[in-house]
Amino acid sequence: MATRTPTLRTTKSARLYDRASAILPGGVDSPVRAFRAVGGAPLFMRRARGSRIEDADGNRYIDCVMSWGPLIHGHAPRGLVKALAAATREGTSFGASIELEVKLGERVRRLMPAVERVRFVNSGTEATMSAARVARAFTRRDRIVKFEGCYHGHADGFLVQAGSGALTLGVPTSPGVPDALAALTLVARYNDLESVDRLFAGHTGEIAAVIVEPAAGNMGVVLPEPGFLQGLRDLCTKHGALLVFDEVMTGFRVGPGGVQGAVHVTPDLTCLGKIIGGGLPCAAYGGRRDVMEMVAPAGPVYQAGTLSGNPLAMTAGLWSLEHLTARLYRDLARLTQQLVEGLAGAAREAGVALQVNAMGSMVTPFFTDRPVRDYESATSADTARYGAFFREMLKRGVYLPPSQFEAWFLSAAHTPRDIRAIAAATFDAMRAM
Ligand SMILES: *Cc1c(COP(=O)(O)O)cnc(C)c1O
User: Mutate which of 212, 218, 276 to test ligand 1's pocket (most atoms within 8 Å of Cβ)?
Assistant: First the structure.
């Protein structure tokens, strides 16, 4: 019996993409949005509510992207919309201090006690870039260690990945990053403490900081193995380097206290973003008081921002953090478990090799039969298969990240019914691929 092949009408998106391509490089403002990693033309979105998103042609999808992480409460929660409308009437930006910055700062510190002092900025990129500057000033050292496959925004020094597993001096991932700058970035292997130990041994007294996604989300979800984060803590302490947790994605996502709260490892500095802005441009870096006192005007390290701490971002951030309840995390954990089982079950039935990694409400199904624990195993995934899967899921009303190497995000607005629909679509999609 022939099953109906779902089709998707996307003529308005296609027309918008044509126009966009004549004004925006590649037709987008951020590269993954262009769907290059999955094939096909990108969708233009026009509205979203709860767990649903609607494109320019009026097609509706269950959203598993959720703006790449900020929307833990779902799209446009009523209370947040109301709070933002009220804040807007009082003025959108003053370029001066406001009470909301103090309130949000105090709340962040309550949730993450390691953040003794905090500075608000506008994007995760700004947060990590500034944290690196402060770490260098504090230690009077220049080198930074990062991990292969981890993403810390697009500042020059972080656009470095390493040559095929070789732990060498950094080479730029992007033209325009000077070799001299990239050379200051050393690259280690995720979940491999020995690779970090070797870098410290080869660069005695030169390493300012080790920066890590304490649970990685930007090569797809990759969990820290037991002892990895504590091992980094010990190595940094031993060698006088600062440990920087980039919790832009994981902060308030895997639990109210981030990964650091879950595994009880205390970093010197923490970078936050995404959920802290509740869907508005807001991020932060913070940590040890003595380190953060380096930041101007308390100290000599310059860092500033015209719109930093503006009333709208602070309002959205505060609303978002104030509504993080124990119940929300319990519900999300249950939904995530249901999704993991649904994906794995569908793959088993369809006879597809799939590794599903998850932490908090972040999930990545990798099209590979190898356990995924670092960049090398992540990239063993079959990206062409993911692309085919992505396109089939779209036709079935599920909007996934347009790349194999991204996390899917659930929110408080997703329901068990949504998850059952995703699992059913997964089974059909895998059979149709
Ligand atoms: C998203 C992300 C960033 C960059 O944040 P932007 O706001 O996109 O600049 C940095 N680090 C991690 C871990 C991220 O997930």
Answer: 218
Going from N- to C-terminal start, the domains of the chain cover 11-76+325-432, 78-322
Q: What is the pTM of this model?
A: 0.97
376 contact partners, CB below 8 Å, separation of at least 6: 148, 165, 189
- In angstroms, the CA 346 to CA 430 distance is 8
Q: Residue 151 catalytic?
A: yes
User: Whose C-alpha lies nearest to ligand 1, atom 8?
Assistant: 124
Question: Ligand 1 site: residues with CB under 6 angstroms?
Answer: 123-125, 128, 151-153, 213, 217-218, 246, 248-249, 273, 283
Annotated active-site residue in 61, 190, 274, 285: 274
Query: Is 11-76+325-432 in CATH node 3.90.1150.10?
Result: yes
* Per-residue pLDDT tens listing for the chain (433 residues): 445 567 899 999 999 999 999 999 999 999 999 999 999 899 999 999 999 999 999 999 999 999 999 999 999 999 999 999 999 999 999 999 999 999 999 999 999 999 999 999 999 999 999 999 999 999 999 999 999 999 999 999 998 874 444 444 567 878 899 989 999 999 999 999 999 999 999 999 999 999 999 999 999 999 999 999 999 999 999 999 999 999 999 999 999 999 999 999 999 999 999 999 999 999 999 999 999 999 999 999 999 999 999 999 999 999 999 999 999 999 999 999 999 999 999 999 999 999 999 999 999 999 999 999 999 999 999 999 999 999 999 999 999 999 999 999 999 999 999 999 999 999 999 999 9
Q: What CATH number does domain 78-322 carry, 1.10.150.20, 3.20.20.150, 3.40.640.10, 3.30.460.80?
A: 3.40.640.10
CB atoms inside a 10 Å sphere around CB 62? 22
CA-nearest of 177, 185, 192, 283 to 229 is 192
Q: DSSP state, 26?
A: G
